[in-house]
Amino acid sequence: LKQALRRRSKIFDRRQSIPIQDIRDVEEQVIVQTFRTTLVSENLLPESHDDYHELRRFLRARGLDIDKAKLMWSNMLQWRAENGVDTIGEDFEFGEIEEVKKYYPQGHHGVDKEGRPIYIERLGKVEPNKLMQVTTLERYLKYHVQEFEKLLRIKFPACSLAVKRHIDSGTTILDVSGVGLKNFSKTARDLIIRIQKVDGDNYPETLHKLFIINAGAGFRLLWNTVKGFLDPKTTSKITVLGYKYQPNLLEVVDASQLPEFIGGTCTCPGEGGCMRSDKGPWKDPELLKV
């Protein structure tokens, strides 16, 4: 019986014009359905969140414990209501984005070999004090939430359509060249803690793998402090690499999907560089139509 429950079912979502392969664990399906029934009975399942994969992410974040997942889910709904998250895409305009990216170079660029979106940050080039001169912590957090909503509503679905397989997690690359204790100011610490809390509480289980590259001695000292703020499940997905990281990255990402400055072949000419291009399937107008 146990072996039968652990079988994985292969489902094709044919609601779209392109069928999407969706492999599910049969035992998890039973738990997700029970969780869904519980939420419906307590009026905790808005139509916009009635999604198998979203329910599963919250369950996985709480070790498939329905009561713990329900509390996390309820808190998420309250947070969304209090912060206007459902309409943040239309209501919030981050006009300072160009200046922000100058002092905090980051963004999505390409996909890994399994079709997951890649998110890159160049932490060694972050200037926290200058960043806070062109925006505020609260505005940056709103921008971060707005981008996460785009990831869930546009980028994951576009990636899924591109590879015809369900995608709901991403690969992150943090370039920490030059990062040490001097970079870990109070401003930087506050930003990391706030972002980590928002993500961990409201967007669980969306990280597939995180690569930290160019980690020198200074960063490794800092890492011992930073990882204390992270959830243990998150740290288990993190690989810290030194200066000879390219072979590790190229195992999971094709060179054409990596910017030149981290060992790839892409330069995104004419788009302001790779950190401003937002390269990915989500830029394909044909996929967006679907």
Automatic annotation (TrEMBL):
InterPro entries: CRAL-TRIO_dom, CRAL-TRIO_dom_sf, CRAL/TRIO_N_dom, CRAL/TRIO_N_dom_sf, PI/PC_transfer. Belongs to the SFH family. Keywords: Golgi apparatus, Protein transport, Transport. It is found in: Cell membrane; Golgi apparatus membrane. GO terms for cellular component: Golgi membrane; plasma membrane. Residues 96-270 form the CRAL-TRIO domain. GO terms for biological process: post-Golgi vesicle-mediated transport; protein transport. It comes from the Eukaryota. It is a peripheral membrane protein. It comes from Selaginella moellendorffii (Spikemoss). This is CRAL-TRIO domain-containing protein. Pfam families: CRAL_TRIO. One of its GO terms (molecular function) is phosphatidylinositol transfer activity.
